[in-house]
Amino acid sequence: MKIAVLSRDASLYSTRRLVEAAEQQGCAVKVIDHMRCYMDITAHRPKVLYQGSPLTDIDAVIPRIGASNTFYGTAVVRQFEMMGVFTTNESQAISRSRDKLRCLQILSRQGIGLPVTGFAHSTKDIEGLIELVGGAPLVIKLLEGTQGIGVVLAETHQAAKSVIEAFRGLNANILVQEYIKEAGGSDIRCFIVGDKIVASMKRQGAPGEFRSNVHRGGSTGKVKLTPEERSTAIRAAKAMGLRIAGVDILRSNHGPVVMEVNSSPGLEGIEAAAGVDVAGKIIEFVLKNVTTAQARKTKSKPTSAVVDA
């Protein structure tokens, strides 16, 4: 089986681990920079080309697309889908999860627990927006932020007004959310492959830091999930249409609440914290699904009639 990992940097831990796991399971694997791919948008014979050659012999694609490359990266994934190639996450699901507002709206419609969240356009509505989420302290998030960048804790009403006005003055889109104080600066990352949680970890923010992102100096450790937390994470990934996902949950006084659903979750922290070969689980999932799809295609092909001479 031939697998393509769409990644801009072959030296990244997650990319290297996927390559190692694929090779260990007897697969031919190639890292492809999706931003260097170009496409032949033609009916009946769509193609993806890379370094001058068409990628015609790929059985499966594992997208590792950064947030800043979502538009072009998902276009490449969509092109592979048009070619009938299995992708661990489909282009529409990736786009859906990358839009934080859309993601929260979908989760809300599915009845999945969320922190109280507000969204507004005009600075004239700031007072109502702050009141909506229960007042300060509250969390203000840039819709385009990643890895904890663009997330601000406003501890007072005046601070909240000032930050919101500053962001809107820059024409930045923001979300305002209630601050889950009881979480104590920690969250839980659930790593989902298919319809199962294969690993989980607790992330604790650095001293004085309410954001738990490892990139912000946070630490990781093992965690035991409750049945409600498991159900919430799986339902969240399913609502997004993601087969591979990292679902971030906070433990609140009113149960688990989802903060984010990530379509390209990193492997380094969770493999170390949980002691699980997550990359291997992903490759097993790919092998199972591609084999099943190939078997269905073979079964659906018409058989030639045997004619006696």
From TrEMBL:
Boundaries of every ATP-grasp domain copy: 104-287
Picking any one GO molecular function of the record gives: ribosomal S6-glutamic acid ligase activity
The UniProt entry's sequence similarity note says: In the C-terminal section; belongs to the RimK family. Belongs to the RimK family.
| Swiss-Prot/TrEMBL cofactor(s) | Mg(2+); Mn(2+)
* Gene3D superfamilies to which the protein is assigned, alphabetical: 3.40.50.20, ATP-grasp fold, A domain, ATP-grasp fold, B domain
Instruction: Report any one BP term from Gene Ontology.
Output: SOS response
Which ranges of the sequence are coiled-coil?
A: none
Keyword Nucleotide-binding set for record: yes
Tell me which HAMAP family the record gives.
RimK
A GO-annotated cellular component: ribosome
Name used for this protein in its record: Probable alpha-L-glutamate ligase
Sorted alphabetically, which PROSITE patterns does this protein's record hold?
A: ATP_GRASP
Q: What is its EC number?
A: 6.3.2.-
What gene makes this protein?
rimK
User: Pfam family example for this protein?
Assistant: RimK
Residues bound to Mg(2+) 2 are E260, N262
The uppermost taxa in this organism's lineage are: Bacteria, Bacillati, Cyanobacteriota, Cyanophyceae, Nodosilineales
Q: What is written in the cofactor note of this entry?
A: Binds 2 magnesium or manganese ions per subunit.
Q: Enumerate the residues binding Mn(2+) 2.
A: E260, N262
